Amino acid sequence: MATAGANKRIAKELNEITREPPSGMKVRLVDESNVHKWEIIMDGPASSPYEGGHFKLLLTLPIEYPFKPPILSFQTKIYHPNVSNDDKGSMCLGMLRSDEWKPPNKILAVLNMARNLLVEPNAEDAIETSIAEQYRGDRKAFEKTAKEWTKKYANAK
Amino acid sequence: MADPADDERSEELESLSAIYPELTRDDNDLFHATLELLVAPNPHVSVLFHPQVVHSSFCSLDEILEDLKIDNPSSIVPSSAEVVQPEWQDLKYLPPLALDISLPSEYPTSTPPVIKLSTSPDYFPASYLESLEEECTKLWDEYAHTAVLFAYVDYLQQAVEDGFTGVSGKQALKVPLTYKPQLLDFDKSTKRKKFERETFSCGICLEPKKGVNCHRLATCGHVFCRACLQDFFTASITQGDVASVKCPDPTCGRADGAITHRRAAPLKLRAIPPGELLQVPLDRTIVQRYVDLKHKKKLESDQTTVYCPRKWCQGAARSKKYPKPTSLDTYVDSDSEPEDSPTTEAEGSPTTKPTEKAADPSADRLCICEDCSFAFCRVCLNGWHGDFVRCWPRTAAELTAEESASYDFIRKNTSPCPTCSSPTQKTHGCNHMSCPQCRTHFCYLCSSWLDEGNPYEHFNNPKKECFERLWDLEEGDNADGGVAFVGQRGWEAAVEIAEREAEAAEAVGNQNGENQAGGDRQDRARDGEQEGRQGQRREELGNEERAGIQHFLEMVENDEEDGWDSDELGDEERFNLEFR
Predict the structure, then answer these.
(1) What are the distances in angstroms from CA B509 to CA A139, B31, B513, B518, B557?
(2) Residues ≥6 apart with Cβ < 8 Å to B373
(3) Is-contact A133 A142, C-beta < 8 A?
(4) A115 interfacial to chain B (CB closer than 8 Å)
(5) Annotation marks residue A93 as catalytic
(6) Which residue, among B262, B335, B278, B275, has the nearest Cα to B301 in the 3D structure?
(7) How far is residue A129's CA from residue A134's CA, in Å, rounded to a whole number?
């Protein structure tokens, strides 16, 4: 897509999301002059171990967007099987994978997917397999650590 | 004749033309007019085009099925090409019903309007049209001999929309076969006109677009604007990602239509045929590239493919399995049908394929290049020498500078897929790769197969070399060859062996002269390996791996030897052939 068309689509999506923000999310551009980097503050969903936390995510749109998928990462450390447990907080699953991405997918869908993952982690497609195993085998311990981390890193009271 | 302006008849026709602007009035006869009514049966009408039918008639769906069965010789008698088969189609639109109205001077008080109905071609049974015509007189009676035209036209419209399909339980039309092109053309062009007037929301640019600027994908019916499809497909083809040239709709091909965060089973989406890409329209050169790339991918995924030894050509040898595509408009390749599953694509896994090939070295040595028509030998890559000449495979020593440069690049900047060996270069993201060619899941660092169900286990196992290295090279595998992986990729190992063998062969050739060089090739390869450069890389190469590749090379050579174990040629001649 010509750059102008791509920027128009991004602006449209940004406009839609700012006008009607998805529940529990705040979305803004990192830098007003660059529509390719979005900052999202995602509230931990109620009755998940992340409840009360505020997680900062970075959404980077490649120049080829929407032909290539957005890149989503947690800037706030989080204890989760689908988020890499390092300083990058990378995610690599579902529609974020370039072989599964389709241009009509929207950023809103990506954000909703991320939020759904907080409610229900996907242990079958986990980046952190040890966390996934704990999630499957010892849910209590998983939730305990996830809660602690939420408190420690995501400002939960 | 009374003043036309005051005439009731004239007034009626005027008001009718206000409602139906397409009403055409006769300049010579003020009380004569024609009107064409669109015939759009709801939801559609089944039409049987029958070679033995002269006059159209209504029939039931059962009759259609019966006709198709009885007249289908393949089910009863052996088929003959001469027999013209009945054909059956569901049509949404039929050519218009032409209504010819004459209002006699006694209308409406004492005479009904004179109505003539016709269609071109006459796909309606004559009796049906007659009954519709008579209906006008009935209506005129019902309306107590007053103006009846509007009511009648309204009645006709309903009749052709859903009425006639219910005529005595007959829901389908049986018409002469000769009507087929006309009816199909009309149906198609009307559908297109309707489509062009509609408005669609393009899922890619998210803008509302008029149908005239949109394209409906032939197999799934999803609609996108032409500009977006052009951009998307052109970008994919330019980047060589021909696997993406499919319907962009995320729900397309998914039974439940749901987008989930779970990894979906591989979709059986149809690749878009090049003929349709031209209609989008895509640039001809891009579509040509698409067809060429797909052809090339198929050839490459088949390890038996042989390429033309002429340096300026490098076309593939003609292959019955994958014939070279000729016309873009008509070309249909196999994956315009549902995509092959990775297992069938990878038929002939790396372990079996070379053996098969080696076991039968004499079979079909003659190859003809599909590009330049050069006839050459599959084994020695020289011009065709006839069936009874003994020859030897060329060695890596004969790699051209260009070839080695490209191997070098491939070696430094790509990792091969463990299933199909396609070199893959990572542009960004984690090291869990899925092969763009055959969808195998593998590790970018060491080319190990990864379990699709639990691909990350490989990076979380402290015993593996790739432990905690899922995100190495996240920015992509750079052209500077900055690979942070300790050890060699399988590919690197293979190239290195080839290089070493080449050097060794040269060294032996230089030192020992002709007689010795004519000795056992296998020994020489082993000597070469011992004398070869003792690079640092080599130590890193695991013994097991080396043994494996060595074994493979030996196997190939032995089998070749077995196949050619005759005394047709002496050692001297054999040497000459080898070092030509």
Answers:
(1) 69, 106, 6, 9, 19
(2) none
(3) no
(4) no
(5) no
(6) B335
(7) 8
pTM above 0.80, yes or no: no
Residue-range domains of chain A with CATH: 4-153 (3.10.110.10)
Q: Which residues of B306-342 are buried (b: 16+ CB within 10 A; e: fewer)?
A: bbbbeeeeebbbebeebeebeebeebebebbeebeeb
Task: Indicate the average pLDDT of chain A.
Answer: 90
Residue A98: closest CA among chain B residues belongs to which residue?
B429
Classified as helix, coil or strand, B398 is helix
B309 near B359, Cβ under 8 Å?
no
pLDDT tens digits for range B458-509 = 888 888 878 888 887 777 776 454 544 444 555 555 566 677 777 777 776 6
**What value, to the nearest 5°, has the Cα angle with vertex B191 and ends B189 and B194?**
110
What distance lies between CA B94 and its chain's CA centroid?
Answer: 31
CB contact under 8 A, A67 and B250: no
Nearest residue on chain B to A62, alpha-carbon basis: B428
Distance, CA of B117 to CA of B129 (rounded, Å): 6
CA nearest neighbour of B271 among B321, B332, B228, B345: B332
| pLDDT, tens digit (0-9, with 9 covering 90-100), for B506-539 | 776 665 544 443 444 444 444 444 443 333 344 4
Place of tokens 């999506």: A13
**Cβ contacts of B532 within 8 Å, gap of 6 or more:** B500, B501, B503, B504
> Where do we find the tokens 């005027």?
B14
Q: Which residue has the higher pLDDT, B22 or B484?
A: B22
- Of the candidates A92, A95, A108, A127, the residue annotated as catalytic is A92
**ipTM of model:** 0.84
Nearest residue to B474 (alpha-carbon basis) of B441, B426, B439: B426
- Cβ–Cβ contact A119 with B under 8 A: no
Alpha-carbon distance A89 to nearest alpha carbon in chain B (angstroms) = 11
Give the containing element (helix H, strand E) for B430. none
